[in-house]
């Protein structure tokens, strides 16, 4: 694969940050929320038309699985586990996170979406 290679990855669950380090000396702390809403999965990217992911302000990563020598699979605590993040994507998400984040916030506002977690509805059934 062309481009910088991943040399280290550290998850800080308390801060909800994934820090990635590359062989060109660059290191980026990427928020879990940004990783989740930017997932390269088919669920998020659909069939050529990206789906806006919302309500992920408090999302965290439960596990990280290596995929060969080119990517990691991130397993999120909201159940999302189908995104494979190649080194190149992690590099781009880290390097360009400010622009990617602003674009996301603009899309969210345009669609009247929210970053806030959904509040579970309590349903009571009577006999």
From TrEMBL:
Gene3D superfamilies: 3.30.2020.30. Keywords: Iron, Metal-binding. Transmembrane segments: none annotated. Residues 9-91 form the Gamma-butyrobetaine hydroxylase-like N-terminal domain. GO terms for molecular function: metal ion binding. PANTHER family: OS02G0197800 PROTEIN. This is DUF971 domain-containing protein.
């Amino acid at each position: 694969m062309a481009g910088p290679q991943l040399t280290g990855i550290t998850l800080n669950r308390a801060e909800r940050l994934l820090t990635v380090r590359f062989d060109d000396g660059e290191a980026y702390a990427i928020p879990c929320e940004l990783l989740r809403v930017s997932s390269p999965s088919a669920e998020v990217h659909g069939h050529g038309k990206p789906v806006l992911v919302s309500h992920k302000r408090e999302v965290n990563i439960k596990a990280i699985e290596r995929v060969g020598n080119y990517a990691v699979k991130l397993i999120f605590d909201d159940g999302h586990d189908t995104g494979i993040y190649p080194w190149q994507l992690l590099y781009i998400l880290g390097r360009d996170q400010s622009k990617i984040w602003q674009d996301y916030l603009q899309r969210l506002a345009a669609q009247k979406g929210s970053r806030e977690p959904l509040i579970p509805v309590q349903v009571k059934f009577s006999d």
